[in-house]
Write a structure and sequence with these properties.
The structure holds two protein chains of two kinds. Chain A is mainly α. Chain A has a domain at 95-263: MetI-like (MetI-like fold, Orthogonal Bundle). Chain A is 76% helix and 0% strand. Chain A is built from 13 helices and no strands. Mean pLDDT of chain A is 82; it is low at 313-317. Chain B is of the alpha+beta class. Chain B folds into three domains: 50-65 and 288-505, Orthogonal Bundle (MetI-like fold); 86-159, no CATH class; 162-281, no CATH class. Helices cover 52% and strands 11% of the residues of chain B. Chain B contains 16 helices and nine strands. In chain B, strands 5, 6, 7 and 8 form a four-stranded antiparallel beta sheet that branches. In chain B, strands 2-4-3 form a three-stranded antiparallel beta sheet. In chain B, α11 crosses α13 and α13 packs antiparallel against α16. The longest helix of chain B has 38 residues, at 408-445. Chain B is elongated, with a radius of gyration of 37 Å. The chains are: A mainly alpha, B alpha+beta. The A-B interface holds A 11, 15-16, 18-19, 22-23, 26-27, 29-30, 133-134, 137-138, 140-143, 145-146, 149, 152-153, 157, 198-199, 201-202, 205-206, 255-256, 259-260, 270-271, 274-275, 277, 282, 286, 289-290, 293-294, 297 and B 47, 341-342, 345-347, 349-350, 353-354, 357-358, 433, 437, 440-441, 444-447, 462, 465-466, 469-470, 473, 476-477, 480, 483-484, 487-488, 490-492, 495, 507-510.
Chain lengths: 317, 510
């Protein structure tokens, strides 16, 4: 297990390195943003660029970039969106909003999703199961900004329950802030609920038909006892890693939802950095999203091994 | 008879088949192939069949809508911006749909009178329905007065009413000709601001007013009093055409304005003069004045063609890559798997953005967008093909082919690949909604802008609709409905197809 974990981690860093290098070279190949001539800061930024090796070969630039990141956590300076400010600071400033919104959404959706999944599996092939499965299918297919639109139009505009946009400010735990977050949280939750419902249902229906369930019933357990003690435990082998994966994913957030509800998070920062051609910011966020993706997949894989020893054995290739 | 079977005399034996010839009973039923079998299973799945029908309808819509719409995608109306659905014939039937209706809250008496005035002048009633009347008591100059306000549903196309317009002399004459031919009154008598308390920004006021807020001065019977200009000295051009009721020939229909004439025209009828038909927006218009009916069709055409193209390319690349991986296995597999792994981990948004930044200027927006999809899109297909190849490459027929001296490529694509084809094609169908979804997302966010190439795209339409969501929800609703339907039905259809081709995975959804 340890060997497998180490292998995966080494591989992860290797992948991350390659992706970072590729993106870095591609970003630096683009002509740098023109600096405003009048602005006194332009001189400073021009000097910063010189120090970052803008006129040197790309690999040297990459070396300087890595050195700065590892020694000082310096990801460069924003030369467009937040003129002259270090991108890392802005990024850290934006991170909490994204995390909190997504955290609420997970807290809301995982129990509902698992419940619905269990319910559908237990009522397999009845109308309840069909209704839940069809709804899940529909919810997964429809893109999240359609929910955002429906929620914004009906709940915020027609009924006036919530504000249109998320409140500005950093008082993330005040009641008004919570209410203003809810539309975004709800829009994010639909997809997560549907995902968990589907996974749980698929896994549980498979477990429920296995032989050890028959044995459990034969030795005298009621259906409820057998389900809770034997079926659910086995079904969690798949569900729990998915939860871990989802928790890593919360930092990534959703670009679109953040943009629609103007959540001051990394998602909207990313879109702005793309549309505003802020390359230093773009580079940092690219690395960030890649790390999130890699971490999520590695944690899912490793947690499988920890939860279910059978998979651990199988993982030794 | 005793049960002694041990010593049966020889004469008791006889040949069974001296005359008869033995053969298997012939099957009465027709032989059924793999695809026919799958088709029968598919037909049993009701929801997939419904989905298939809806997909055909949506594709039909995408092909036909831009053709039957009277508008072109390049046609951007400057006045009808974010206007609700309207078709004159249906509006005249008064059934509550496609009547250009929007709900206006708290309209005061004045505004209601203005609507009435528009009706009187143009002959088209802008008020569809009075939904609610609210009476409120307020203090005004120390006195308690009752103020009525109305919640009304009005036809936005009709509330537009009159517009001031500056026309050249030729144009002015042409409109008069049009009036004479069709009997539709486009030009209405001019009203000078000095006659209506100096109001110069509301061409719909043609009656005497008491103050600059436009409160009408009613006569004894409560009717509006016309304030049309009669100062012939200011008249712009000769007018020999239809005159409104109550005109004894003294009203002027235009005033001179530096080499041109300014007149009051009924915009709705002017529109008929310009375009040859009444406004007809089945889905309404969007924020840049395009006909949504046409625009959704154009966007859908692009989405569908693009998605099919992407999945076809990904299928080809993925199949070849996966086939090589699966067939050779070992070190080749390992190296190719690592490459795929690395590419797979690059966030799609990053790929799309970098391709846009680097390639869009050189090869165009659409090819670079296509490359972005192809760069990482084939990996799923490759993994699938690889799995299928691992399953089939140990089979005896592969060994037989090898023994007969078949080349590797022949074994891969003539012997193994057809066996895996069903699985691969069905997952190809499931790739299509994924591509449409990503394409919509990127255009919605404005990272990719297809307006130059395709005219518009569903994502762009939704972004435009989102901006004016509260006042004109239809601009968001129709594109959202279309793309949702498309994605739902494609997923249902794909799942049904997959279940039909692999009966073993039926009911397991992932």
């Amino acid at each position: 297990m340890l060997k497998y974990t180490l292998q995966r981690i080494v591989l992860m860093f290797f992948t991350l390195f390659i992706i970072t290098l590729m993106c870095f070279v591609l970003v630096r190949m683009l002509p740098p943003v023109e600096l405003p001539i009048e602005d006194p800061h332009a001189v400073v930024i021009a000097q910063r660029r010189e120090a970052m090796g803008y006129n040197k070969p790309y690999l040297v630039q990459f070396g300087i970039f890595l050195k700065d990141v590892f020694t000082r956590f310096d990801w460069g300076i924003s030369d467009k969106l937040y003129f002259g400010q270090p991108v890392a600071d802005i990024f850290l400033e934006k991170l909490p909003a994204t995390c909190i919104v997504n955290f609420y959404s997970i807290i809301l959706s995982i129990p509902i999703g698992i419940m619905l999944g269990i319910f559908a599996a237990l009522k397999k092939n009845t109308w309840i199961d069909h209704a839940i499965s069809t709804l899940t299918m529909i919810v997964i297919s429809v893109p999240s900004f359609v929910y955002a639109f429906l929620i914004q139009y009906f709940l915020s505009f027609k009924l006036g329950w919530f504000p249109f946009l998320m409140k500005a400010g950093t008082d993330y735990f005040s009641p008004e802030m919570f209410v203003s977050m809810l539309p975004a949280v709800l829009s994010l939750s639909f997809g997560v609920i549907a995902g968990f419902t589907r996974t749980t249902r698929a896994e549980l229906t498979e477990v429920l038909t296995s032989e050890f369930m028959l044995l459990a019933r034969t030795k005298g357990l009621t259906r409820g006892q057998a389900t809770v003690r034997h079926a659910l435990k086995n079904c969690m082998v798949v569900v729990v890693p998915a939860i871990f994966g989802e928790f890593i994913g919360i930092m990534g957030g959703s670009l679109i939802i953040e943009k629609i509800f103007s959540v001051p998070g990394v998602g909207s920062l990313y879109i702005n950095s793309i549309n505003g051609r802020d390359y230093a910011m773009f580079m940092l966020l690219t690395v960030f999203y890649t790390v999130i993706g890699l971490l999520a997949s590695i944690i899912v894989d490793i947690s499988y091994g920890f939860i279910d020893p059978r998979i651990r054995m199988g993982s030794k290739k | 008879m005793d049960n002694n079977f041990e010593h049966i005399p020889q004469e008791m034996f006889e040949f069974v088949q001296t005359n008869a010839n033995l053969h298997d009973t012939k099957f009465k039923t027709k032989a059924r192939g793999y695809f026919a079998d799958a088709f029968i299973r598919f037909k049993k799945n009701k929801s997939s069949v419904v989905a298939a029908v809806i997909i055909i309808f949506l594709i039909f819509f995408a092909i036909v809508a831009p053709i039957i719409s009277p508008y072109d995608i390049k046609q951007k109306d400057k006045i009808f911006i974010n206007y609700p659905p309207f078709v004159e014939e249906i509006a005249n039937a008064h059934i509550g749909i496609m009547d250009g209706g929007v709900v206006y809250d708290s309209q005061n008496e004045n505004q209601m009178l203005l609507f009435k005035a528009i009706e009187q002048e143009t002959g088209r009633n802008p008020v569809l329905q009075v939904l609610d009347t609210i009476e409120k008591e307020t203090l005004k100059r120390g006195q308690v007065i009752k103020v009525k306000s109305y919640k009304v549903r009005v036809n936005r196309f009709y509330t537009l009413g009159m517009k001031y317009m500056t026309l050249s002399y030729e144009e002015f004459a042409r409109i008069q000709e049009f009036q004479n031919e069709t009997g539709i009154q486009v030009i209405f008598p001019y009203v000078e601001p000095k006659d209506i308390a100096g109001i110069s920004d509301n061409p719909n006021i043609w009656y005497k007013v008491t103050d600059s807020k436009g409160v009408p001065a009613l006569d004894k019977d409560g009717n509006l009093v016309p304030a049309y200009s009669k100062s012939t000295s200011k008249a712009g051009a000769e007018y020999n055409s239809l005159r409104i009721e109550g005109d004894d020939g003294s009203y002027i229909y235009s005033i001179a304005k530096s080499g041109a004439v300014q007149c009051r025209i009924d915009y709705y009828d002017y529109y008929k003069y310009i375009n040859g038909h009444a406004p007809m927006y089945i889905f309404g218009t969007n924020s840049i004045g395009q006909d949504l009916f046409c625009a959704i069709g154009i966007g859908a055409r692009f989405s569908l063609v693009f998605a099919i193209l992407v999945s076809a390319i990904n299928l080809t690349i993925g199949a070849i890559y996966g086939a090589i991986q699966g067939y050779y296995g070992g070190a080749v597999d390992l190296v190719m798997d690592r490459i795929a792994d690395i590419l797979y981990e690059v966030p799609f948004m990053v790929v799309a953005t970098l391709f846009q930044l680097h390639l869009a200027a050189k090869v165009g927006v659409v090819p670079s967008f296509l490359f972005a999809f192809v760069l990482t899109g084939w990996i799923g297909m490759a993994a699938l093909t690889r799995k299928q190849f691992y399953r089939f490459k140990g089979q005896e027929y592969v060994l037989a082919a090898k023994t007969l001296g078949a080349r590797d490529s022949r074994i891969m694509f003539k012997h193994i690949f057809p066996n895996a084809l069903g699985t691969i094609i069905t997952s190809c169908v499931l790739v299509i909604p994924g591509v449409i979804s990503s394409e919509t997302t990127l255009t919605y966010l404005g990272i990719v802008n297809l307006s130059e190439f395709a005219g518009t795209s569903i994502g762009t339409l939704m972004a435009q609709g989102q901006a004016a969501m509260t006042t004109s929800p239809h601009a968001m609703f129709f594109p959202a409905l279309f793309v949702s339907l498309l994605l739902i039905t494609f997923n249902l259809f794909g799942n049904g197809l997959r279940d039909a081709f692999n009966p073993s995975t039926r009911g397991v959804e992932d």
